[in-house]
Design brief:
This protein is 30% helix and 11% strand. With 422 residues, it is α/β, with parallel strands linked by helices. Helix 9 links the parallel strand 9 and strand 10.
Length: 422
């Protein structure tokens, strides 16, 4: 087990305050079980008419049903494609097949396998209209944190690997710094550099992997990328992580924030450590993440909390999001945002069996809600949107924290730290 969550957060304690309950429950009540419940029988596996999404751009969030360009293909089981079909491996699947094992100092039997992936690009275009960024940087493929709900499991299928190998086989992208040094001036556009572009294009670091997972200690791909980005100015960059390891780069992040717009999102799904361990088995505890957030804010780094995903009936209980917003405020969070669970087939293979064992009373509702389209009904989404708006008003968070991504960055010092701090 990685030591990233083995030690208590020195001097940091989550304040437990009474919060007024929300009006009506948004989902059937199902308290966390002390131990796993018996497996609920008679339930069909979660299915989707869209199947698994396959495509070249693994940095974008997976397509939802109804999105244009949705392609389908069966996933294979095992670390390498075993089919004897004549079709050769191409693209990222071919690169994965020739990736050599990476040396590691870790000797734990629980550690994943690491491979050196000879990628041709590190700055990848994302054309989805559902997200507020144009470019992604994912230093690794796969993530050791093993979050049961993780939508990014589908990215392993591009390499002809099973989505269940997402946390077992981690691919380390080679030469990321050198690639980024070349690609930023070739691909990236700042404000005014093309017609009708009045804001800098946004780069999201960690859209399909955690850039500060334990592998970063050994291979430093995220650090190499940041060392290139700090040489530029007028960029717009966000980092999303569940790891307190981000504080290692606090001075580098300060320098980036002085020259470009920077947003560090600390993902905290729940304040309950036992529930967090079930949902995100190898990620740092919630208190360690909030302690890291506090250190970032004390250093002047723009940072906030991403309470995502909200899991209906599990993390949306009366007062739970409100308590998380309060803890985030106590840690100095500059914003508080959230998103609701999106469960596509690849992720469902991991999540649904665990849900049926831990929360069997929720299984039928999840089948009805997520089985066809992968997401919750519109009325639940609308109710959660209103609730989040009320939370922001109550605790003084900006209403639309990421609208700043679409504003011009004309010179140094124009970062979110100056706009929403305090």
């Amino acid at each position: 087990m990685s030591p990233v969550h083995s030690f208590p957060a020195t001097g940091f304690r989550i304040r437990r305050r009474h919060v007024s309950p929300t009006p009506a429950p948004l989902f059937p009540i199902c308290p966390e079980a002390v131990s796993p419940n018996p497996l609920a029988g008679g339930l069909a596996p979660l299915t989707s008419p869209s199947g698994s999404s396959h495509g070249p751009n693994a940095g974008c969030p997976a397509l939802m049903a109804g999105d244009a360009g949705l392609a389908t293909a069966p996933a294979t089981a095992g670390p390498r494609r075993t089919s004897t079909a004549a079709a050769p491996l191409v693209g990222i699947a071919r690169l994965a097949s020739i990736s050599p094992a990476a040396e590691s100092k870790r000797r734990s039997e629980e550690r994943p396998e690491y491979f050196l992936l000879p990628v041709r690009s590190i700055l990848n275009r994302c054309n989805s209209k559902r997200v507020p960024f144009e470019w992604t940087i994912n230093p690794y493929r796969g993530c050791e944190f093993a979050c049961k709900y993780c939508y990014a499991r589908y990215t392993h299928e591009f390499m002809e690997l099973d989505g269940l190998d997402f946390e077992k086989k981690i691919f380390v992208k080679q030469d990321a710094g050198a690639l980024l040094r070349r690609e930023v001036p070739e691909k990236y556009c700042k404000s005014g550099e093309r017609p009708n572009l009045d804001h800098p294009e946004h780069i999201a670091i960690g859209s399909a992997t955690d850039p500060y997972q334990p592998a970063e200690r050994e291979y430093g791909v995220t650090r190499a990328c940041l060392e290139e980005l700090v040489q530029r100015e007028g960029l717009s960059i966000s980092i999303t992580t569940k790891s307190n390891q981000v504080v290692r780069d606090v001075e580098l992040l300060r320098r980036i924030a002085a020259r470009s717009a920077l947003y560090v999102n600390m993902t905290v799904t729940t304040l309950r450590p036992r529930l967090a361990r079930w949902l995100e088995p190898r990620a740092p505890r919630p208190d360690l993440r909030l302690a890291a957030l506090r250190l970032l804010r004390e250093a002047g780094v723009p940072a906030g909390v991403l309470a995502s995903p909200v899991l209906p009936g599990i993390t949306d209980g009366a007062g739970e999001l409100e308590a998380l917003a309060q803890a985030a405020k106590d840690a100095g969070a500059a914003w508080f945002s959230s998103g609701i669970l999106f469960l596509q087939p690849t992720s469902a293979k991991q999540f649904m069996p665990a849900l049926r064992e831990k929360f069997p009373r929720l299984a039928k509702q999840y089948e009805e809600w997520f089985g066809r389209y992968g997401h919750v009904p519109d009325d639940y989404r609308a109710a959660m949107r209103r609730r989040l708006s009320d939370i922001r008003k109550k605790f003084g968070y900006p209403d639309r924290p990421f609208s700043e991504m679409q504003t011009p960055v004309a010179a140094a010092q124009m970062s979110l730290a100056l706009k929403v701090a305090g």
